[in-house]
Structures are given as C-alpha cells and as structure tokens.
Write the structure tokens for this entry.
Amino acid sequence: MDQHNNPGRRKFLKTGAIAGAASLLPGTQTSAETPPEPTGVRSYRRLGRTNLEISDISFGTSRLRTREEHLIHHALDLGINYFDSAESYTSGQSETVLGNALKGKRQDVYLVSKTITRARTRAERMMHDLEESLRRLRTEYVDVYMNHAVNSTDVVGNPEWLSFVDKAKAQGKIRFTGVSGHAGRLIECLDYALDKDLIDVMLVAYNFGQDPKFYEGLTRGIDWVSTQPDLPRVIKKAKARDVGVIAMKTLMGARLNDMRPYEKSGGTFSQAAFSWVLANPDVDALIISMTSRADINEYLGASGNQQVSQAARSLLDRYAHLNGANYCKHACNLCTGACPYGVPISDVLRTRMYATDYQDVAFARSEYALLEVDASACLNCSGEPCRDACPNGINIDQLCAPTHRMLTHKNQRLA
Ligand code: SF4
Ligand code: SF4
C-alpha cells in the first residue's frame, strides 16, 4: 500500500457507526414516509486498476455550496470516502468547501476533480486549472483527475492533455486519470479512450432509463423505449480492461416528489434506482449529489445492495411510465446533427434537467454558460428541423428556446 492508500473505510469501521448499519439488511430501508435513519456505507468496491476501495454510494459535490462543510462531515461519519468534484462546480465553491471540511482528514478520503478542455486547449492551461483545484481543495494531489464532459475524440486524444497528464503524474499531483461525459458522442469518446488505453476511470450517466434491458421486463409496451444500447457494452468493455466505472445521473431525472405516493413497500425511489445500478457487476460505484443530511441518510440505505427487489422494480416501472416520455436520455445521440445551427440539443436538455428536475437553477445556469454553443439560435427558428428528431418522444423544438430564456434571463420563471 503506498502513502496515498489510506481508505476512509478503516477509520469508519473504527468509529463503530457500521454497527448500526449492519443491523439493517439490504432492502429494509426506510420509506419516505418515515424520516430516514442514518445507516452507513455497507460496501466498498475496488475501482478498477486504481485499486482504490471506494464507498459504493459516493458523494457528488456538483451542488455543494458555501457553509455546507457539515454535509461532508456527515458523509464522512457514515463512511463515505470518495468525493467527486470539478473546478466548474458552483464556480469553485464546492472545492473550497470540500477543502475546508477535509482539513486534517485528507488521508482518509479519495478526491476527484475535473476540468473542461477543448481540442485546442494547451497543457499550460490544464496545469493551471489543476493547481487552482489543488489550492481550493487544500491538498497536494488528487486521486483521479478527469477530462470533464468530453464530446469529441479530439478532446480525449488531445496530445496536450496526454502530455499534461504525464507531467502532472510525474510531479505527484495526479494519481490516476479519466474522462466524464453525458453528451451525444460519449460512446465514441469512451471507445476511443479504452482502445488507446488512455484512462484509468470513467464517469458516465447511467441509469435504468438508458438500458433497453430494463424495458424488456415491462409487461406493457412503451413506444418511447430508450435507445442507449451501446452504454452497457462500453461499460462491460471497461470492466474487461480493468478501467474503473462510476455511474452518475442515476435517478433518471430525480423527480422524487412524484414518487412519494408509491413508496409504500419499504424503500424509496432513489434506493431502487441505486440498487438497479449497483446490481450491474460492471459498475464499480455511483456518485450522487447530496444536498442535505436527509439525502445522505436516505441514499446510503441502498449501500451494499446488489439485487433489485420486486418492490424496487415496481417503483422503477412506475417511474418510467410516469416520467419517461419527458426525460431526455442525454447520451442516446439520436438527435445529433438534427439542428442546422449546431445547437447541442442533449447538453441543452441536460442543463434544463438541473433546473426543472433538480430544482437547482443556479447550477443549471452555470452549466449552461459552459456550453461552447448555446440555444440562442432556437429563439428565431421555426423548430421544423428538430421537430421529429427524437425517437424517444422529446419535443425538442418546444424545449430548447424556453431553456435558453430560463437559463440566461435572471427573472425568467422555470419553463
Ligand atoms: S432529445 Fe431525444 S434523441 Fe436527443 S439525446 Fe435526448 S432522448 Fe436522445
Ligand atoms: S429549434 Fe431550431 S435552432 Fe433550436 S435545436 Fe431545433 S432546429 Fe436547432
């Protein structure tokens, strides 16, 4: 074990908090009708070739804001040891909060950060971004550093990125490298990165709505069946090459409120969705934005689950029927090229999801501002070219212009 291998797991076991967790069997989590009791991480999984042993349900910090150090402390107390951040999250606030919260505890956790690059981004700028993240995180290194939100093989294979990674590793600032993504050309990017052996870890949007196998189990036909058949293939390929796989966007839109009337059978919708992801042996772990102590308590109720119970499957089926037709699968790629003005439709709809489903307009606006091309062209477009471009039934022509207005005009209401 090298100097960095100091899993928070051991510390957690020493605290005795696991004693409470061990008394709860998988599938016996509290429902949304009773306040969730804190349990704790029940399973640590090996993250591919990195050999990091990480909490199966880990902390995504994309919505972490100033004065929320207490959330990190609560997560640590419950055994979470993997914290995923990025320079762009909450304009750097999340890294600052994480750095503050982990003062004196750095050796107990694994840290991830990311930077968005373009095909022409130079290595010097990447090093600058990394060093700024290290400064905010109050650390000398991150365990995993990712090329964030990739959507082009020119970005994944940019020689400047590759030389930056070599240099940063040699300097001890990065231990492992990876890519994250959820856009139209994600599959192409992942195949490229895996075939050229460029990554140790990948972070992908993966949930029950993106796997056609989920729909095979539904008894009633659905005409908007998800079309992301290649994602399971690529995840399996990563596993075969011992590349770590982390899933994100696991809630398929996070419309928790819609599901509470159906959460009668001992588990919540979130726990059902997490169980579905964790039941795939090709996925090592998942990250989820944790915005309250109650979130953390509820989410960890699914830790250790490796099967989807009948009750959980019923909840997912119900959710799919209720919400599926409104949910863009993001990386399904089938609308790519439909817009003659180059609007990145799935990225625009992803930022819309942050506002309408996550109810986090500030985060949605900051992510929207990062898009290379926005949806301003939609304001003066008939919508004809993209009207029938989504075989999943998403009304692209009716959603992109309101999304642009909502995410660029401060007083615009949620559309
Ligand atoms: S709008 Fe439709 S086709 Fe485009 S990414 Fe979303 S689900 Fe796929
Ligand atoms: S409304 Fe027009 S500009 Fe907007 S995505 Fe559709 S085709 Fe492109």
User: Anything to note?
Assistant: The CA atoms of residues 207 and 252 lie 6 Å apart.
